[in-house]
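Dear colleague,

Thank you for sharing your sequence with our group. We've completed the structure prediction you requested, and as agreed, I am returning the results in plain text so they can be pasted directly into your records. Please verify that the sequence below matches your submission; if there's any discrepancy, let me know and we will rerun it promptly.
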Amino acid sequence: MMSTPRHAQRGVGLFDALVALAILAFGLLALTGFQSRLVSQGTEAQQRMVASQLADELLNTALVDAASNTTCYMLPVSGSCTAAGATALSYTSGWKTRVMSALPNAATPTVSTDASGRLTVTLQWTWTSKDGNTSPGTRTHTVISDPR
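Please find the predicted structure tokens below.
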């Protein structure tokens, strides 16, 4: 009966442990990338939600106001507002300031109206991805009100 020398099998356990650590490292690296992507998408979703809330706020305020004050909510300001519309004009100016501070690199918001009395609010901001996977660029959120 022939026996193999004991020293020929040394280090097999260490090699198995090294392979297990390599697999674990790749798994943890994948989880880190996944978490980074989730945080990036969560931030973008939050910015879209803020844009939607701000647009909804202006539209609801304009819709409960008198129909004669609709032009006072337009941005950029076009035409003249009556004395009754001064409050609407002041509100819109404050709303514009909040939009510019709430959204990153926001462009000046626009609010327009059409012949049927619908108001259209358009908000734009620049999205810069921190994870390198989401494409950067301008994000636009447009909301159109129902006619009165």
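Summary note from our side: The first helix runs from residue 12 to 64.

Kind regards,
the structure core
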